[in-house]
Amino acid sequence: MKKFCDYTDKYPVWKKGMKKTYKILVPNMLPHHFDLLETALRKQGYDIEILSNDSRRVIDEGLKHVHNDTCYPCLCVVGQYIDALKSGKYDVSKTALLITQTGGGCRASNYLSLVRKALAVEFPQVPILSLNFSGLEKHNSLPMPMKLFVLLAYCILYGDTIMWCYNQVKPYEATEGEADRTREKMLEYVRRAINENKYKRYEEINENIIKSFALVKRTGEKKIKVGIVGEIYVKYSTLGNNNLEKMLLSEGCEPVVPTLMDFILYTVLGKVNDARMYGTGKATGFVYKVVYDKIRKMQKVIAELLSKYGFNPIHDMEHLRACADKVINQGVKMGEGWLIPAEMAALYECGVPNIVCAQPFGCLPNHIVGKGTIRTLKKMHEDINIVAIDYDPSSSGVNQENRIKLMLSAARLNDRLGSAS
Amino acid sequence: MKVLGVDVGSTTVKAAVIDGEKILYTSYLRHYAKVKETVIAELNKLKEMFGDEFSVAFTGSAGMGLAQRSDVPFVQEVQAAFIALKKYYPSADVAVELGGEDAKIIFITGGTEQRMNGSCAGGTGAFIDQMASLLDLSVEEMDEYALRAQKTYPIASRCGVFAKSDIQPLINQGASKEDISASIFQAVVDQTVAGLAQGRKIKGNVVFLGGPLHFFKALGKAFRGTLKLGDEQAIFPENAPCFMSIGAALYAKTLKPQKLGDVIKRVEKARAGDGIVKGKPLFSSKEEYEEFLARHSAAAPAEEDATSYVGDCYIGIDSGSTTSKMVAITPDRKLLYKSYTENNGKPLDIVIEKLKHFYSLCGDRVKVRGCAVTGYGEELIRSAVCADFGIVETVAHFKAALYFRPDVDFIIDIGGQDIKCFKIKNGAIDSIMLNEACSSGCGSFIQTFAKAMGMKIDEFAKLGLFAASPVELGSRCTVFMNSSVKQAQKEGMSREDISAGLSSSIVKNAIYKVIRAKSPDELGNNIVVQGGTFLNDAVLRAFEIETGKQVIRPSIAGLMGAFGAALYALDNAKEKSSMIDRKSLEEFSYTSKSAVCNGCTSHCNINIVSFNNSRKYISGNKCERGAGMKPSDNDLNIYAYKQKRLLECIRGGGTRGKVGLPMQLLMYEQLPLWAGFFESLGFEVLTVRSSRELYFKGQHTVASDTVCYPAKLIHGHVESLLDLGADFIFLPCESYNLDEKASTNHYNCPVVAYYPELLKANNDRLGDNFVKPYIDLNHRANAVKVLFGALKKFGVKEHEIKKALGRGFEMLEKYHADVKAKAIEISERAEKENKRIIVLAGRPYHLDPEINHGIDKLLTSLGVAVLSEDAVYDRSDPVKVNVLNQWTYHSRLYRAADFVSRHKNIDLVQLVSFGCGLDAITADEVRSILEKNGKLYTQIKIDEINNLGVVKIRLRSMLAALEESR
Asked: What's the complex ipTM?
């Protein structure tokens, strides 16, 4: 054992008894899913609260507390935490924070350390917990018993179903607000199922969700479909992407947002692929493959039910992998890696040639997997219509909007040409 | 039926009326931020001329919001151009359009594609305007000048801020305005070709659109030259400036007609947008402002009248990037003379003029006993006027601050181009923070902006003092700020609110980007602020509000560098001053010319200024050789050793074919491994040297303009290797680097790991001749298998690969061992010679002279020995840090910092590539390790900008601070 020279600063550690007395704040990354996550963790006895603060103060606090060259998601998350802690709504001596960590080769794995650094000055007493499956932060992780692990998987799958249906119904709803009301009802339905321990009635719950959305009256008009892919935070978070989905809806489009479980399975496949490509961690690879197969089967159930009720199905992970292979090697596993080009190719194949590829300004993996793959995709499909949008605290909204509008005008033109022929 | 298209852009409003096939009317008007008024006036005029019945469509970046809020049909401007092109130029293959703020490109044949510039490259027309004002020319003059140019200088073309950092020193060095003007236009062309076309060739019939391309002949010429277009292929339409409005009119043909009167009414009623964030006022009342003024009037030095004073004096000159400052003081430190003048591109002329003025005031009553020069133009001015001393800016500013506040513990200086901050501990400079290129030019931005509004800077700044709701303009850089200002104007925000917003943006930039302060306490208790920008009360107030501290602003805040220099001259004066006397000053003249230095393969563009007394001043050279001096000592420079040693790994020869190894990113460190591997297999190994020309060669295949320079360079390597006849190019993808067992994980950064994918996807010449296997070198058996799979098509056997890989590893280990041994030798010699050692720490690929721009040589010329992180890291223990320590190269940085901390005479300078996201994390951590051990942290951001002016100031400041603390 080598001798280590320790330069770490002291930080508050999460102790066992804290579960009973501490409130845990979580930044809002995905509106649908985190709602269910909150319920799931509350059920385990954690006093969880998902943050919804999104004023300009959030960005200002972020700017103050993280290095300006750090990516935008980190800035948003830190800003949301600090703004919340300063709001006076919480007893800061009894508050902790929770953040996810993937342990991948991208900067995102360091968000936790950066949040900790940001807290050190003004809130040195606030502990921060990691939610990860890679064995990081052993003493500061949310304990992950099998049961909770399974419950979280269910939450993600149900969140996906709700999000996927909502996006297909909302643009076409005959009565304003009905899609939103259905979404609220369905979230409440799943929450109840979790609280009453009935969440494993998987098919039944999914079917009920899908059926409820199918019952929403729709106008049947034709709209341009626009896929959203990209870095995981700006892809889903309204704070991160300036409410991209809402903007697309107001432009008369149908946003198509691939599911969160695809991203989870992509990270699971990272280990499977490592074993295959480098011959390392074969045992882990085997276990992960079992998990992958199991979850993929569960996704299939959703896909089939969606088709049954006349919705477009969610992507099949094996199809995504096949799509990836045409564009980039599955060895590209940092950040969102091969998943981004795979989703772009799959969206095209599923009749969604128009795509917003969202990334934080200066995102490292996205140089390669986002902007770097567009040319290959263009070569494969001449009419694929991709716009890469950078998100940053300082770039103006007009700038982003104008570029999205350019993509949309090309989309409309292509659409007209398509229907003419 | 008549159709009308209105193009509302960031600076202009264009309109077109078409009836059937006939274009009845076009117009092109500047709107000076009065968007609504201009549009309404134009619509009213059209109603008068052509009646009330029209089909109307708006287009343009400012038209977007206006159309939405007044319910007028909108067509995106690129789309509008596309429609018009189809009609009027059906044979066009490509169209290039430059507007006020956006650049666009439309590929028509071979797969239609429409592109706009990314967020970073904003500012084309606006960029040209800004550069013209920097040169003190009108844009028309700049165009004429450019047509007379004899040569162009390489100017970073990625963004306006970077270009400015390149141009400013050229101005200071006396490069001709003709050549600089042409270089500016060339930079715009390079940006469009590289940043926008990204791999797609611009060829065939090219239509050039938009105002700038229409009005500036030099720009058109540069485009034609770069794209090698004949007269027939380059089309410059007569109606280019209003082309988009014609397109919008054509688009309107598909729409229902409406009453123009109604449209006008709706535009008039359109409310302001809600996309603007507003802050609190700087002053809530006149009383508050007066109290503030009274408080700040206290810090002023005593003055002496130059027209009657008899006795000695000391002169200080601060030749800054945009202004020249001069101060003369008496032996009892009274102010005898002061001047603050804009350079207007002629810094030397200004200084000479002011010296003459000073002499004319004093006659023969005053004797100059000493003179010190500081600032960007230090060397030029010093050799021109034979000043006694040249001192580093930080030293000058510190000296001046001490005069006003002997217990000062924090100094912040915001000048035209740079922001400098230093902390003072125990009477010495403890740490220095300078802005990086990306956030430079804030001070002069506000000035240029005031000019554009037709106002004096102080007039403009005063506007903001009582603004009710200052606009939030962001703080990343002036290009982003510029576009935020435009947006604010479009949304109808007042000039007062914009003025106040600009002031606080500058302050936020300083606090959050440069100082990176998390709490006001970090700034200390006795803060002195200086620099011309702080003379602006709004900026000062914004600083006090943002930090919550009361600070001292000397009345001569803008002159502190010169004042400090004068104080220095006073303290250090010798028997006799070497400065030129009044007579020689009257006769003084100079000429400047540019040349290429052929001292080495770098071929620096140098500038030679010849003075009338046959002395010369040479600048622009990266090493001493260009200036005719003895080259620096390579024996104490591990960079020089490594560069030589690396290339020795290639023996040459081979019969099996030629393999090209692109020397950048991961290949820089692994060259010994792969050269050994391929030569052992019998292949001939080809490599090429990096250079700026090489970069331009591959620029068209760069897919993302915000990626780091090392990555961008590798595109040029690929092109050159193919030109050299490489049968195939080899660059592996490695998620994992070698495990040095000192970190949680051992990843490569995403760019290093996967860049080969991007290269292949964006270069048509690459196919089967590009081998990029996914390898984990920690598992050799597996690596052999993978390599066999990748290379068997060249007829190699698996057992050969196994052997060759073994050979490669031997070579790599030998290389590492040699480098480490050399490092020990250098350390020992430096110690014997009592020389300071600097560990110039970065990544292995920062060894490339095109990446580090010769900073290692600069250091040795300053008299220190140079080591690198990879030569010393394993002389320290592994470290535990606050962040996730999961990248091999970065882990070495932490250990190098620890190593440095254990040695008294060794310090560290971190090289950081611009755009390196991981270094945003490592830099803070390296800094924290060093500061915990009482060491100075210095960071240098490097990019394609190869001007070492700022770097030199920075390193000299650091060395001066180290000397002082000794």
From this structure: 0.93
